[in-house]
Amino acid sequence: MPSTRYTRIEITQEAYMGLEAEAVLQGKTLKKLASDLILSGISAKALNFVRLRSESFPGDEASLNRGAYEAGGQRSRISDNQEAIQKIKDLWAQNPRPSRREIARIIDYPASSTKYQIKNMLERGELRE
Questions:
Q1: Model pLDDT, residue 56
Q2: Which residues in the chain belong to E strands, given as ranges?
Q3: Domain span including residue 119
Q4: CA pair distance 84, 54, nearest whole angstrom
Q5: How far apart are CA 60 and CA 54, in angstroms?
Q6: pTM
């Protein structure tokens, strides 16, 4: 399975400072903002290539979220992705239960978001400890 970590890139100090300021203004992380800006700035041909290539890895757990992306290329919130919620419930019911971090990796959402979602589901009684 392909890694979700990628080679780091270098940008100018001015670009970094601008990215930082824009991230604060938009309430996004640097990673999220940089990814959004890059994806909005590449050609449709390049974007299609990326999407086709990512579909060429059959059986990867990340395929769960391919339908979770909105038209603008942004992933929906975990709480709005019923497929991810159901996968959390299914994984939570397993014995032995995977860790919360492992569940996050499987559903391809950040660990912090997944842990928060699990906490809320426990509080609502949708999951049992």
A1: 56
A2: none
A3: 42-124
A4: 19
A5: 10
A6: 0.47
